[in-house]
Amino acid sequence: MKKRELLSLFLFIMISITGLSQSSFNQNTMKWTRDWTNFEPNNTNYPDYDEQLPNIIDKDTYLRSDIVYLMSGDIYVTNNATLIIQEGTLIKADTEKSTNLIVTKGAKLIADGSKASPIVFTSNKLSNSRKSGDWGGITIIGSGKANTVEGEGIIKGNFNPLYTIFGGNTPEEETTILRYVRIEYAGKSTNGLSLYALGNKSVVENIMVSYSADDSFEWHGGNSISKNLISYKSNDDDYDFTQGYRGELINILAIKHPYITSNNGSYAIEVDGYNKSLGFENSKILSSIDITGATLISLVDENNYSHTRAAISINNLGELYLNDSNISGFSDVVKLDKTFSTLRMIETAFKLDNSFFNIHKNGVITQNNIEDDLFNLLKYNRFTKTFLQPEEIFSNPLDRANPDFTLKNSLNNYMVVQ
Asked: 142 and 204 in contact (C-beta within 8 Å)?
């Protein structure tokens, strides 16, 4: 991406001229997480529901905040209808059935909450009995670009085939508006929030996915900008990108627990350039993501840090650029699969700028016998000389109700990769 190349060149010149000063490095703070999040959703007493939503919403519908709604079974928004949800609305999901909200191609979800009154989707179970995978999740299907052989695809999950096609030729579509939304205890056979081929006029901001049994966020194709996203203790990946997603994320937080993972292992970020089982249409529009302000955390200590893996996994020629980011508690920064056969390919696939990492292994893992110094991929970033515990690095990382992952000390206290 042009943005990557220009910023990398700029940072190199500035470091060469001015040296490494405190102001040269990221000042990533977590103020954006305040006042709308909930890091203890199992302790929250939600009221019982008042009304049950129909399983087919085929006309424009407005949900009010003075009514608590129940989703029971799969709910489809169809027929180009718009589902509007007022700020402060609570929607509960039946855990006895396969319950999902599917916004089909051409329809729209406008869930426009506020900092003071976020919209909440959660399990219908009582407090202290909710668990990951109590219900399915939210799937939004767009008509934007998807790098599949036919330019379209079928969403994951056992859904009505009438409503499962995604992708098209409308890259500027406003597929959805999501602001200040919390999604809790989802991930049963799908992800917390699945975004398929969103148009670039879509809005996805201030979203928190907690305790998903699958991925918290997953993008399939599309070209959009998202910001202020939180993934909290998911079983699988926190942020997953595939099928030619080409977009930008600003301010994301992933908090992983060392003993919560999927059978195949999980990553804070996983990038697939294309879906290996489906192939792709155009090798020039594989998944490529720019992220500014990522905080990727595994809450490990001296007793369990050996269970961790890399923070990031890049596969099938995907590309990822991270800037102004903090990575802590993982074995390595990034792992790249066997499709990256040369150092040049790896250097194109992954760039880390103006960032900090605290890991306990070598930093970069590849599946090919590349003998070059891979640690050079992490040049001009700060790192800890020895592996440190989260409370040694961050302001208040173990507070259950209001964790704070702002760096405690100036980055000048740490080593620099030269």
From this structure: no
The first and second tokens of residue 416, run together, are 């620099």
Go through the domains of the chain in sequence order and give each one's CATH number: 26-416 (2.160.20)
Beta bridge partners of 84: 62, 110
126: which DSSP letter?
Answer: P
Q: Indicate the residue type of 56.
A: I
List 270's β-bridge partners, or say none: 240, 313
Instruction: Tell me what pLDDT residue 388 has.
Output: 93
pTM of the model: 0.92
pLDDT tens digit sequence for 79-137 = 999 999 999 999 999 999 999 999 999 999 999 999 999 999 999 999 999 999 999 99
How far apart are alpha carbons 82 and 109 in whole angstroms?
Answer: 6
* Closest among 47, 45, 50, 86 to 67, alpha carbons compared: 50
Q: CA 382 to CA 379: how far, in whole Å?
A: 9
What pLDDT shows up at residue 359? Answer: 95
Give all strands (DSSP E) within 65-216, no chain letters: 69-71, 75-77, 82-85, 90-93, 100-103, 108-112, 119-123, 137-141, 153-154, 165-166, 176-184, 193-196, 203-210
How far, rounded to the nearest angstrom, does the alpha carbon of residue 84 sit from its chain's CA centroid?
A: 24
Q: Which residues fall within 8 angstroms of residue 16, CB to CB, at 6 or more apart?
A: none
Tally Cβ neighbours within 10 Å of residue 201. Answer: 16
- The position carrying tokens 């942020």 is 239
What is the CA angle 248-223-230, rounded to 5? 45
